[in-house]
Amino acid sequence: MGKKSYTTTAYTNVDDFIYGKAVTPVTTKRGLVIGGGKVYPEVNFTLPTMLVTKETMPEVLDIYREIADGICARAVDLELEGVQLECEWVPQTTFEPEWGIQHMQVIEEVVEGYYQKYGLKGSIRSTPVDVREVGAAEGLEHMWHGSLWDKVVRSMEGSAAAGNDFLSIESIGGKDVHDEGLMYNDISKIIFALGVLGAKDMEKLWGMIVDVAAKHPGCRAAGDTACGFANTAMVLAEQNYISRVFGATARVAATVRTMVANQMGATGPDKDCGYEGVIVKAITGTPVTMEGHVACVAHLSRVGNVAICCADLWSNESIQHIKLLGGWGEVVGLEQLTYDCRLLNGARDKGWDHELQSLYADSDSYLDPHAYILRPDVALEIAKGIVSAPDNAFLRVKKAVEMALKVMRQGYNDKRLRLNDRELSALGQLEDDLGAITDDEGAFTEEQIASNSDNPKFKPALYDL
To answer: Are strands 121-127 and 82-88 parallel, antiparallel or unpaired?
Structure first.
């Protein structure tokens, strides 16, 4: 299929832009409807700290079986209609794809067993690691061919063949430059990384993933996340290494890169740690997984409540299989998510969904620019701005940056967003820096290749530049 063009937003009225409802819901092979009116928990899990080798693989498979069984058993106890399990592969099992495929088969067997015995509508997201990032420092052959690319392809093919419902990845195309942009507070590098390198990589990568999913009935290409880009920015801002407005701007800019998956045919649900998913949903209408306060097991942030406002699945981010007082970590995570979902769905049943959404948004958004840009009304305004630009990733990333700066400036002026002197200074600097960037993508690319020539991780030939 060709690349889809989004020239309007999926939502025009912010009252329709709410949790649990997507313009294009997704139904899994076991009948779970995502984005059809209810929010369900998605439990994201990983292994405890351990060596993953050929010798330990039997233990690894036993652990994954225990994880899946624990989640499904507790879901039945809590009388859940459905639950989604996400397995974020560890690097070793993507470097050895047959290992990862084995544990995805084990998880599939457990989930199917609970469906047959209890009617639990379980679904599975498989998220292999983008091992090309490791290879970039060790002689990566090319972004779109060679041994590491082949490992990613095989991981996706094996997951689809195993019967998994959704394919996702946290891709890294452009991260080699984006990291430098964060380090030096250089918005031009951010735009180059996301609007040129990242978008170019996403077309190749997600073209492949969509093709793989299409060959296996019941499997869908779900969505990507800018975890390595915008989450890095968010965490750096939380630790005061960069300004919060810079981190929020990087998040909005990442929307355009992440959305390329949908343009190539991904149907959602978008992946949890991509907080930009709320803007992606506004544009594409596809369901999204979001994470917030329950994600503090993986990282701290200031967006714990506002992130839930438009979620279709609600996730804990990632939790290790470790024993807590209440039980295994992933089971505890499921219970926390379940009660959040009950509140969301209960409010909808009583017609209080918009009031609850407002409470979640208002509780966070005044305090932090990263939370502010995730408000449903602000996210929809940003989305409308992005699609008003020509359908070109570079120009749309530039427009996304412009919109981020515009809404933060307006929010501050309207006393809806608190910014201290440091943040105001950073906002003014970003406005000046953006104004100096050309609209000529060719000239901009040549300029960026030259200015990044001293970056040992960035090799233009890897992107056919």
So the answer is: parallel
DSSP letter at 87? E
Q: Are 193 and 258 in contact (CB under 8 A)?
A: no
Which pLDDT tens digits describe the chain residue by residue (465 residues)?
689 999 999 999 999 999 999 999 999 999 999 999 999 999 999 999 999 999 999 999 999 999 999 999 999 999 999 999 999 999 999 999 999 999 999 999 999 999 999 999 999 999 999 999 876 556 788 999 999 999 999 999 999 999 999 999 999 999 999 999 999 999 999 999 999 999 999 999 999 999 999 999 999 999 999 999 999 999 999 999 999 999 999 999 999 999 999 999 999 999 999 999 999 999 999 999 999 999 999 888 999 999 999 999 999 999 999 999 999 999 999 999 999 999 999 999 999 999 999 999 999 999 999 999 999 999 999 999 999 999 999 999 999 999 999 999 999 999 999 999 999 999 999 999 999 999 999 999 999 999 999 999 999 999 999
- Alpha-carbon distance of 242 to 244, in angstroms, equals 7
DSSP state, residue 288: B
Cα distances (Å, whole numbers) of residue 102 to 9, 62, 96, 98, 432: 40, 11, 11, 6, 52
DSSP string, 269-302: PBPTT-TTHHHHHHHH---BEEE-GGGGGT---S
Q: In 273-417, which ranges are continuous DSSP H helix? A: 277-284, 329-349, 353-365, 369-372, 376-388, 393-413
Task: Give residue for tokens 């209440």.
Answer: 326
Amino acid occupying residue 404: A
In order of 26, 38, 317, 342, the CA distances from 337 in angstroms are: 20, 13, 11, 9
One-letter identity of residue 427? L
Distance (Å, whole) CA 126 – CA 101: 9
Distance CA 218, CA 215 (A): 9
**Whose structure tokens read 């093919």?**
157
How far apart CA 234 and CA 52 sit, in angstroms, is 30
pTM: 0.97
Fill in the amino acid letter for 271.
K
Report phi then psi at 54, rounded to 5.
-60, -40
Tokens of 439: 């609209």
**What residues does 82 pair with on adjacent strands?**
121
Q: Residue 53 in 3-state DSSP?
A: coil
